[in-house]
Amino acid sequence: MADFTPEAITVSFLEKHSGRFGITWQTRSAGRPVLRYTENGDTLFEHASIVYGKAEKGAAYDAVRYKNYAETPDFKPGQQVLYQVGDESGVYSEAAILHVPEDSPNHTAFAVFTDTQDTNTVGGWWEKLLCDADKVFPQYGFIVHGGDIVETCVFPDHWSKMLSNTAAHTRSYPMAVATGNHDYWKGYLRGVDGPFYSHFHMALPPQDTDDGVYFSVERGNALILLLNSGDYNKTGGRLTDSQFEWAKRELRDSPRRWKIVIIHNPLFSPGKYGTMEWRAIPCLELRAQLSPLFSEHGADLVICGHDHMFARTYPIGADGHPQTDADTVKSDFLGRSAELFCGAAGPIHFEPACAGHQNRGIECEMTPEQRAPFREMRETGSGEVAWAAVETDENELKILFRTLDINSGKCVFESAFGIRKDG
Ligand SMILES: [Fe+2]
Fold first, then answer.
1. Ligand 1 midpoint to CA 266 (Å)
2. Which of 22, 41, 286, 319 could pair covalently with 201 via S-S, beta carbons 3.0-4.6 A apart?
3. How far is the CA of 348 from the centre of ligand 1 (A)?
4. DSSP state of 347
């Protein structure tokens, strides 16, 4: 019997800069997908508008799933839209409210999570962090994810549980998600191609989506560049020429005040993927390839994932070395004193630990040279989960990183830092 029950609903920015969104969901059967939306308050959908979507064969192992997606019209910044997804036959998801983020010329605010992959609570811990973000940083407008949303991206139930346990947030806030290694390492894929893009819908620059995707979002005064370290499958570490040239054009041509890069694999990490022999090869390759690009074309912040530790660097120059003598000033951020670098020669790199249950630490003795780029680092213990607030104004980009103990709900570590630029 046909089953059009929507699972694993995601909301993505459809285009680089618009109020249009791509809403994606999975079904067991292919029908006629429908998005219906209305004003917040019209709970019976009596005045709803309808958008027909598309259903395509999805990417799942040992199961049949269809990727359903629909594209919204151009919603206004700050608008709240009540919506459901489903099928023309009358099967719909529960209603959710989409919060369309603000788009001020002098401001951006988003919450960052990474490596939520968690086969125990499947999003239960991530949801607690999202609730913490609501309290500490209520002005965030969207979610940025550093990759590895789920442990095994070809298992449909990992996605459906992860996204239903976080539905209060993940159906309401647009997400900009980087491709993680759990979306492209062949061992996880079990012969299935393209599982990442089965779960999101964006208007992508032309590219092969088998190993993940790259794209960009502009919101407020920030360009957010989501790079795909899945090129590892083709190159052993570096970005392919086509992705590199695209990234260069994006950074060089963007008029936005702040340029923020998200890439799953770190260019700097005190964890095993930044320090241990063959495991660190992609890190060193990406560092050599991208440090000149980031420095020359004005990247301010690089956020990675993968190593499940907290680390933040000094500004990194074009030669890949830390600018340890950069001036700093103090600035208030969410009631904390943030250390901001001034006159940075390149971006700071930030690894925001993880929002799932796979915490890690330093796994081999670091040489002084390996330690030198880091202004601060911290091993994350069992039962600790983390996220970060990122906010920009005209002259300051500020970050608050928070680690919670999941059992007590108490904050056990914070770091506030960022970049200041004048002129
Ligand atoms: Fe991970």
1. 11
2. 22
3. 21
4. -
In the chain, the percentage of residues whose pLDDT exceeds 70 is 100
> Range of 123's domain?
102-420
- Cα(70) to ligand 1 centroid in Å equals 29
* Non-local CB neighbours of 16 within 8 Å, separated by 6+ positions: 203, 215, 216, 217, 218
Residue range 394-413, pLDDT digits in tens: 999 999 999 999 999 999 99
Distance (Å) from CA 342 to ligand 1 centroid: 32
Separation of CA 36 and ligand 1 centre (Å):
35
Q: What is the pTM of this model?
A: 0.98
CA dist., res. 326 & res. 124, Å (int): 40
162 CA to middle of ligand 1, Å? 15
Token pair 């709803």: residue:
48
Q: Are residues 41 and 172 in the same domain?
A: no
Residue 87 shares a structural domain with residue 158: no
Q: How far is the CA of 182 from the centre of ligand 1 (A)?
A: 7
| DSSP calls for 224-263 | EEE--GGGHHHHSSSPPHHHHHHHHHHHHH---SEEEEE-
The total of structural domains in the chain comes to 2
Interval between CA 262 and ligand 1 midpoint (Å): 14
Rounded CA gap, 354 and 356, in Å? Answer: 6
| CA 19/CA 24 separation, integer angstroms | 16
The Cβ of residue 78 has, within 10 Å, a number of other Cβ atoms equal to 13
**186 Cα–ligand 1 center, Å:** 15
- Backbone CA torsion sign across 279, 284, 286, 291: positive
In whole angstroms, how large is the CA radius of gyration of the chain? 20
Do the Cβ atoms of 59 and 195 come closer than 8 Å? yes
Q: DSSP secondary structure string, 305-346?
A: -SS-SEEEEPPB-TTS-B-TT-EEEEEEETTEEEEEEES-SS
Same domain, yes or no: 122 and 15: no
